[in-house]
TrEMBL record:
<dbReference type="GO" id="GO:0003677">
    <property type="term" value="F:DNA binding"/>
</dbReference>
<dbReference type="InterPro" id="IPR058245">
    <property type="entry name" value="NreC/VraR/RcsB-like_REC"/>
</dbReference>
<dbReference type="InterPro" id="IPR001789">
    <property type="entry name" value="Sig_transdc_resp-reg_receiver"/>
</dbReference>
<dbReference type="InterPro" id="IPR016032">
    <property type="entry name" value="Sig_transdc_resp-reg_C-effctor"/>
</dbReference>
<dbReference type="Pfam" id="PF00072">
    <property type="entry name" value="Response_reg"/>
</dbReference>
<protein>
    <submittedName>
        <fullName>DNA-binding response regulator, NarL/FixJ family, contains REC and HTH domains</fullName>
    </submittedName>
</protein>
<dbReference type="InterPro" id="IPR051015">
    <property type="entry name" value="EvgA-like"/>
</dbReference>
<dbReference type="Pfam" id="PF00196">
    <property type="entry name" value="GerE"/>
</dbReference>
<keyword id="KW-0238">DNA-binding</keyword>
<dbReference type="InterPro" id="IPR011006">
    <property type="entry name" value="CheY-like_superfamily"/>
</dbReference>
<feature type="domain" description="HTH luxR-type">
    <location>
        <begin position="137"/>
        <end position="202"/>
    </location>
</feature>
<feature type="domain" description="Response regulatory">
    <location>
        <begin position="2"/>
        <end position="118"/>
    </location>
</feature>
<dbReference type="GO" id="GO:0000160">
    <property type="term" value="P:phosphorelay signal transduction system"/>
</dbReference>
<dbReference type="InterPro" id="IPR000792">
    <property type="entry name" value="Tscrpt_reg_LuxR_C"/>
</dbReference>
<feature type="modified residue" description="4-aspartylphosphate">
    <location>
        <position position="53"/>
    </location>
</feature>
<dbReference type="GO" id="GO:0006355">
    <property type="term" value="P:regulation of DNA-templated transcription"/>
</dbReference>
<keyword id="KW-0597">Phosphoprotein</keyword>
Length: 204
């Protein structure tokens, strides 16, 4: 079984590889963003499953997933995320994704889900899909408002306050206010530390 894992979070990606390759019958290839994943697929598209991180560079929401699915219709493509909601998971499945994997899944559930999807079945964890709509499935995410999460995502992407304000269609002082609040909630003292904490928590 051959799996392509595309995720820009090094620790999570390496952990995923360790879990899967410990099975002995799973080979993994890794990419750090959508562009690198596409380059790999152009050279060799013989994968049983492609796992795409919802928040990595180049994804642009579900558009990146749909792009890969359209270019390689014979390959099963699944979405994984630490912050995506049930609504996003439902849209991904409706678009034809092989499945949706919250990053909070246990190692055993993850391995079973990957094998299930690689065989051509569709997977999404029942507890996630039946949870209250729009409830973040991440301990850090649960501390923050939706807007604070959006600001934090901008920080992890290295964007300036001005760029984040433009993306969210708000004033720059509003972004600064959200930053001050989210720093306090997650225990960060500056934007770099906040971005690192978010990465370590598997948020983006």
């Amino acid at each position: 079984m051959k799996i392509l894992i595309a995720d820009d979070h090094d620790l999570l990606r390496d952990t995923l590889v360790m879990f899967l390759e410990s099975q002995g019958d799973i080979e993994t290839i890794c990419a750090r963003d959508l562009s690198e994943a596409q380059d790999i697929l152009k050279k060799d598209d013989r994968f049983d499953l492609v796992l795409l991180d919802f928040n990595m560079p180049g994804m642009n929401g579900l558009a990146g997933m749909e792009l890969v699915m359209k270019a390689y219709p014979h390959v099963s493509v699944a979405l994984m995320s630490g912050v995506a909601t049930k609504s996003i998971a439902e849209k991904a499945l409706a678009a034809g994704a092989a499945g949706f994997l919250p990053k909070t899944l246990s190692a055993k559930s993850l391995i079973n889900a990957v094998k299930f999807m690689a065989m051509g079945e569709q997977y999404a964890p029942l507890d996630f899909m039946t949870a209250d709509e729009e409830t973040p499935q991440n301990e850090m995410a649960e501390k923050l408002s939706r807007r604070e999460l959006q600001v934090l995502e901008g920080l992890t992407q290295g964007k300036s306050n001005k760029e984040i304000a433009r993306d969210l269609d708000v004033q720059e002082p509003t972004v600064k206010l959200h930053m001050k609040t989210l720093y306090r909630k997650i225990g960060a003292s500056n934007r770099t530390q906040a971005a690192l904490l978010a990465r370590d928590a598997g948020l983006f």
